[in-house]
Write a structure and sequence with these properties.
By secondary structure, the chain is mainly α. The protein has a domain of 33 residues.
């Protein structure tokens, strides 16, 4: 399994230092990757989507207004 990005290579190097993966595994992946020019990240982080505002129908607006009037009279 060769590395796909520089960030992935750094992460696995960190895991190697912490002792969570074997040195042989890291070296095997490093050899499989070779001297390829890797991107910093495989894909850019997704941008947050802005939710569209909910539309209020005329019927709902009237219901809210009439409910508000009813509370004022009481």
């Amino acid at each position: 399994m060769p590395f796909k990005s520089k960030a992935q290579r750094r992460k696995f190097a960190e895991l190697l230092v912490e002792g969570k993966i074997k040195p042989e595994a890291y070296e095997r992946w490093n050899v499989e990757t070779g001297s390829k020019k890797l991107p910093e990240r495989v894909r850019p982080k997704a941008k947050r989507k802005v939710k569209p505002k909910k539309r209020v129908t005329r019927k709902k607006r009237r219901a809210v207004k009439s409910a508000a009037r009813g509370r004022k009279r009481s």
